[in-house]
Amino acid sequence: TLPAMNVDLDRLREDLLRFYDRHRRDLPWRGEEDPYRILVSEVMLQQTRVETVKEYYGPWLERFPDLEALAAADEGDVLKAWEGLGYYRRARNLRDAATVVQEEWGGRLPGTVEELRRLPGIGAYTAGAVASIAFGRTVPAVDGNVRRVLARLFDVAVPGAAWLRDTAGRLVDPERPGDWNQALMELGATVCVPRGPRCGRCPVAWACRAREAGTVDERPGPTARRPPRVAIIALAVLRRPS
Ligand code: SF4
């Protein structure tokens, strides 16, 4: 039990992981153990839909099978292979990261969140995902799906970054950290969807505070919008005396 959260953590982990083992979608990068391949899938998924990434993942790996091949590749070829995925900066960053790994890490991707975050294009989410899935580190990976699931599970209107990091970090199953993070994301992608979540099919509905409170549709609430900018413009009209 997690005192501050008052939830049966063992049961939560067990139920969600069982759901993941039974119902996860069959995606090309599932079960992948090679850190580079996991990194590629995570970077592609940052801003592109799963269905599109499925088409590009295999061909990319055929073209650039490892970090060494990617680091040695011509930038034009890299961008060409990325064509269709959008947000090309990701492709450039991936190639730059491959180069840094060759030069500073002897060709092997480093395994901690801190080390991964120093590579180009790798933020908190991607570092957490790669560290947990590829290297078995007990660290969280908070994406939009996880944010929504946690906001509902704990009935929090506007989950702040620190709360999310802390809560997600305390939930990670130390036995299966990568699967745990993927299970939370999978729940958000297939059951705890933004509109019309399928609470009747949810393996952790028993722990869901928003469901109990009847606030599921309001969680998470809209993030505060920035107030509109007020521009003060001074205008002077000069007239030549006629
Ligand atoms: Fe999401 Fe419903 Fe499950 Fe709560 S019970 S986590 S709202 S799917």
Descriptive overview:
The chain is an all-alpha fold and 242 residues long. 53% of the residues lie in helices and 0% in strands. The protein has helices spanning 9-23, 35-47, 50-63, 67-72, 75-82, 89-104, 113-117, 124-135, 144-153, 161-171, 177-190, 209-213. Helix 1 (9-23) crosses helix 11 (177-190), helix 2 (35-47) packs antiparallel against helix 3 and helix 8 (124-135) crosses helix 11. The mean pLDDT is 93. Bound molecules: iron/sulfur cluster. The site of iron/sulfur cluster (SF4) has 14 residues, from helix 9 and helix 12.
In short:
The chain has helices spanning about 10-25, 35-45, 50-65, 65-70, 75-80, 90-105, 115, 125-135, 145-155, 160-170, 175-190, 210-215.
User: Averaged pLDDT, please?
Assistant: 93
Return residue spans where pLDDT drops below 50 for at least 5 consecutive residues: none
Number of helices: 12
How many beta-strand elements? 0
Structural class: mainly alpha
| Sheet with the most strands, sense and barrel status | none
The CA-CA distance between the termini, in Å, is 86 Å
Molecules bound to protein? iron/sulfur cluster
Percentage of residues assigned to helices: 40-55%
Order of helices and strands: HHHHHHHHHHHH
